[in-house]
Write a structure and sequence with these properties.
It contains 4 helices and 16 strands. By secondary structure, the chain is α+β, with helices and mostly antiparallel strands. The protein has 2 domains: 113 residues, 2,3-Dihydroxybiphenyl 1,2-Dioxygenase, domain 1, CATH 3.10.180; 122 residues, 2,3-Dihydroxybiphenyl 1,2-Dioxygenase, domain 1. The chain has an 8-stranded mixed β-sheet with strand order 2-3-4-1-5-8-7-6, covered by helices on one side. An 8-stranded mixed β-sheet has the order 10-11-12-9-13-16-15-14, with helices on one face. The longest helix has 12 residues. The chain is globular, with a radius of gyration of 17 Å. This is Bleomycin resistance protein. InterPro entries: Anthracycline_SecMetBiosynth (IPR052164), Glyas_Bleomycin-R_OHBP_Dase (IPR029068), Glyoxalase_6 (IPR041581), VOC_core (IPR037523).
């Protein structure tokens, strides 16, 4: 499948600051930080190093020396959903956050500085799906892509695509391409209410309208896909580590895909590139 994460290579070399709207980072807020590190470390081969603590205890996941994701700890008194959150690059996080507000979104955190690494905001779109905005003077985001253990794709699951697609088009400058002509994204399938978000013609994320199949207990939400070497082996490992398989592995146009949840219930998908 098309890599939506830019041109960083497996050596961890980073490129120039990403253009506004480009997916640049994923972060998970969990209750048990140490246990969550154990789960993802065993599943993806991640190691961890300390990160900025403006949001409390926080670590960056590292794969072969390159940073690929972040995991933070929720305060004990905050009963928030445990979920992976994608961050989209911005050249001016304050302006992007204000645009999101004017377009019907909300900003729940920030904008604030994350030490010397950059400036961030966390908000939700009009459907309630949470996303992050990242302005990077130093930390450019995910430093390695295209190999197992790295983010591959982000997809918004929502009731319908039309209104929320307009929000992301306005806030980040995407071009929204309906499913009839779109060919990117692991859940691309005829008959789906599906939109591919493109930046300069390149697919960067998807929006999937699932109607009444949207989980009532979760509502609209972003889901991150992580690359794996072998999807079936990854599912067996997820189960052995205390996670749950939500959708068995199946072959699609972009590889072998499955949906899972970690031990705290955070949803994500794994995808094995087609051979």
């Amino acid at each position: 499948m098309t890599d939506a994460w830019g041109s960083a290579g497996p050596t961890g070399d980073t490129h120039a600051r990403r253009a506004t709207g480009t997916p640049c980072w994923v972060s998970l807020m969990a209750h048990a930080l140490a246990a969550t590190q154990d789960f993802y470390g065993a599943l993806f081969g991640w190691e961890f190093r300390p990160g900025p603590r403006q949001l409390g205890p926080y670590v960056r996941a590292v794969l072969d020396g390159a940073e690929v994701a972040g995991i933070g700890q929720l305060p004990p008194d905050r009963h928030l959903p445990v979920a992976w959150t994608p961050y989209f690059a911005s050249e001016d996080v304050d302006l992007t956050a204000e645009t999101a507000r004017l377009c019907g979104g909300t900003i729940g955190v920030g904008p604030l500085d994350a030490a010397e690494a950059g400036r961030l905001a966390i908000g939700s779109d009009p459907s309630g799906a949470v996303f992050g905005i990242w302005q990077a003077p130093r930390h450019l985001g995910t430093a390695v892509t295209g190999v197992p253990g790295t983010p591959a794709w982000n997809e918004l699951l929502t009731f319908e695509t039309i209104s929320v697609a307009k929000f992301y088009e306005t806030v980040f400058g995407y071009e929204a391409e309906p499913a009839e002509s779109a060919g990117s994204g692991p859940t691309r399938s005829a008959g789906f209410d599906h939109v591919t978000l493109r930046m300069d013609g390149r697919p960067v994320a998807g929006i999937h309208g699932v109607g009444h199949e949207l989980p009532r207990d979760r509502g609209s939400h972003w889901k991150t896909y992580f690359r794996v070497e072998d999807a079936d082996k990854a599912l067996a490992l997820v189960t052995r580590l205390g996670g749950q398989v939500l959708e068995p592995a199946h072959d699609g146009p972009h590889g072998r895909v499955a949906s899972v949840a970690d031990p705290e219930g955070a949803l994500f998908s794994v995808i094995q590139d087609p051979h």
